[in-house]
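Sanity check

After download, print the first record. It should look like this:
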Amino acid sequence: MGDKVAVERTNRDVRTLVTQIAGGEIMLPEIQRGYVWKASQVARLIESLYRGYPAGSLLFWKTGQAAETRGAAIGMQQSQPSVMPLYLLDGQQRLTSLFRVLTDHQEAQVVFNIETEAFQNQSAATRRNSKWIKVYDVVGPDADVFAIHGALKGAGLAIPESEIGRRLSALQKISQRDFHMEVLHDFDYEEVADIFVRVNSGGRALKTTDLALATLSARSPGFLGQLEAESAHWAQQGFGALDVNFLIKALTLSLSTTGKRLASVAKLTAASKETVEAGWAKVQRGLARVVPLLQERLLIPTTALVPSLAALYPLIIYYGRQPEGAKVPEQVEGGLLYWFLAATARNRYGGASDTALTQDIRVLDTEHPVAALLSNLGVGKGGISVTASDLAGRNQQSPYLMFCYLAAAHADATDWWDGGPISGSLGESSKPHYSLVHPAAKLRNCGSKYTSTEINELANIVFVSEQTAKNIIGNRAPAAYMQDVSSSDRAAHAIPSDPAALEADGYRIFLASRRALLAGLITGLLNQFRPDFLTSETAPLEALNAGKALTLTGYTGAGRSVLAVDAEASGQRWTGWIDPVDFEAALDAAATGLASDVPVGDEAAPLRVHDEGGLSLGLGPFIIRGSLDQWRSAVKDAFADTQPLAECPEPTDDAWSAEPEEFLLSDAAQKQI
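Expected structure tokens:
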């Protein structure tokens, strides 16, 4: 950029910077994100200044052109400046924190222990201890350090009076500490956006959403405000996780998908303003259709229940591509919701989510989008179901927490305190409140009979309000309070009726019974949305899987065994040889949760373990999905009728060049002789 720009270097003390912020002489450009520092970080900053440690430099931008700004999180309205403001590019968290401390912001009540020289946020304990003094009381404009010194002399401190004075003086000088400043002159907005990304990444690439936001803000001032307004709108409805980062990702995905990869952020930042606006309109249109669907048909009241927000993207993109007011057929709408539930249960986006999203979004415009999505997921005829064993050992971190909630909601379960729907138990965090049916304290009174894992199992969780948990359940065994709950509501909450299961001594009976009841309710919920073609004779899935075949065959000879994998796709065949001993070792590792590579000839095929217990193995044209038991059974069946090794087809020399497709292991076959 040579001679056309200048960088001014100067220094200013903290007090001057705070005054300039209040006077509107320092503003935040729109490319800045929100204030995120925690109270502990603010306390550490003040401690660093007190001890004379380096606190970093500040980067500003000065320009004669009008720049879009955002409000600073300082708890007050900035004044209109009488001079052209400086726009802060680097140092927002530090300057905002200092402003808060020096103006007595309620969320920046940093206190100082005069005896230990420790800093922390104000608490009830520090208020009662005269050795702790608030930093603002020493550095604020009305500070009376002489009076504070006098009060501390009578506090029984283990330090001499002269040391009290020295420490108070050092604390007072915090507001006099200088910051080195660099001010950029005559840069245009897009150059500044690029610099912002570089300096805030510390020499490393920021998240792609940060790059996109900086570039879009530079090209379309006010766009970040639109994103924040959209996010705030859905947050008011309980969908607070649809934040700016989520929306940027959705916008990226709304652009065209070509080749093997989704439209990248690079494509987004290079897109024209008109293209971005059109994509943003699709995202808004998609959200306006999808969120009510989740709320009204699935009864999902909050994104806090949704384990993977990535599963929302295909729905948003599909509905965003529909014309305004277009009617989506009932069977398609229900099928899309079924896919969403199935994708959540199978943790579709738990691994390489971008690859899975590429596959799923690409099929949205096909003749049978629901069938194609389910095919990608590996769901065949009969659909999916949930068994009691699927719920065994799960806790509140499991994706099945959402299904347990939805099963109760669709069964019209109510809260036992006020009789209202369980959706009324959402707390301030927008998370459904739940309690343990068998209280932990009661179970622990049984000695060491039950482990913490058993006590906190998902099958012991019930969705009720905090009032129910305190006033009805308390520390009582369910046998003591369930008699006041109607039999119909107990059934809706999947509570076993066996009296023995309601006593602490019968807790394991309770777990086994309730897992079965919950599994039945969840499977019933899934079946409400299951597409008819999953059980029909002419399912679209058959057409989608036409030309795809996978056969596993065991061969033995000359002291060697081979598991031959013969795959066919797109009119081409691929054959791979696997040593069954190597494969069994990989399956044993997978049983402990460890992923590994399986030797296939001179190559290595990745065997991946997914959160919900499923395994996927990349072989030739397919990513083959199945459970651990299915894989073990497939190998056993392949060698049940072993063939001579001399008859085994030769393995394919070349790797499969096309992108692999999903294939369900249950659709594979053993060679028939």
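If your output differs, re-run the checksum step. Summary of this record's structure: The CA atoms of residues 234 and 415 lie 26 Å apart.
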